[in-house]
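New to this. Look over this protein:
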Amino acid sequence: MKSWRLLIVIILGLAGAVAVSLWKHIEMPVRERLGLETPSPSTSAPPPSANHPSPADDAAQPGRSETARPRASGVPSSPGFDPLFATLGILRPVEQSEALDFTLPDLEGRPVRLREFRGKLVLLNFWATWCTPCLHEMPSMERLYQTFKQTPFVLLAVSTDRQGAQAAGPFVENLKLTFPVLLDSAAEVSRHYGVRGLPTSYLIDPDGRIIGAAIGGRDWSRTEAKALIAGLLRQAPALIDDPTQAHK
């Protein structure tokens, strides 16, 4: 009996090691390509939600702390942002990284270029209709979009479905999504962005620089996400009212 128990413990341990290895295989290419760091929560940071664990914790790299390598000038450096990035599990760049420009068609076939949104805060999301975590987070993205659609905020959802509009169109219509959906059927843009797992999202500042990456699904309508977007918008040259206050 004891030998069987020992065998079960060994098997579970090996399974856990394989799971961690697979996750790092997905996450590390994004970190290495963009020079991302694990967010460092302050002592006042609220604990991460049990439903939204931070994938950065298991993949933290030594020697990449904020004190060792100063953050680029375009990246928010206020300590007030640290708890929000940490709670949401969003990785931050330690060096300035400009978002790769691209042009993709929307569901109606109209070309949309990323550079057209300079001057606005952009949440760039890569997803697919067959991705279960993508399906779960899409409604929360719609709620986030509705909260900030009257501000300098843009949400671009890039579908990597090979069937293009044929697959993405009915899905978007069924969930009543109103934010722009672009088609990357050949997955060329997602490859350039180092996307290995879906969903993967990037925060891009008004100057076109990547200021954060979220690997895996999120509840983008939670209080911390809205507070982060509102705070980043307040740092933009054109100050705006906090739209989250209007809904209270």
About this structure: The chain has a mean pLDDT of 77. The chain is about 35% helix and 15% strand.
